[in-house]
Amino acid sequence: MEWEALSRRLRTGNWITLGILGCASLLFMDAAFTRGVILGGLLIIANFNVLQRTIRRSFSPDGRMKSNKLAIVAKYYFRLAVLGIIILIAIASGRVSPVGLTVGLSIGVISIVQTGIRSAWKTSSGEA
What we know:
single chain, mainly alpha, 0% strand
């Protein structure tokens, strides 16, 4: 599968999953849980987009590295540290539920699994 189509499918899946989980938590859970789901979802979507941009800039279309390996690893750990600090501040402030934040951060995994199941279904049913 071409990366552009897969990336578009994952991004769309992320937003749809965030919308569904955000609306469901708004209806059935308290405000702190809903804020956690939405913040976690937005963080993971932003994280995915920044990671994708870093990888695209680091490699040429034919697969050769344009950047230094150390720079790529440093950007990865910097992004991870910033994400950790934001999560720490969000939980320490008490404005978001840690469980809701965990559900929101799982949106990326849910979209990946959903895309994998959909691709496997299409392959096994002959649609691909």
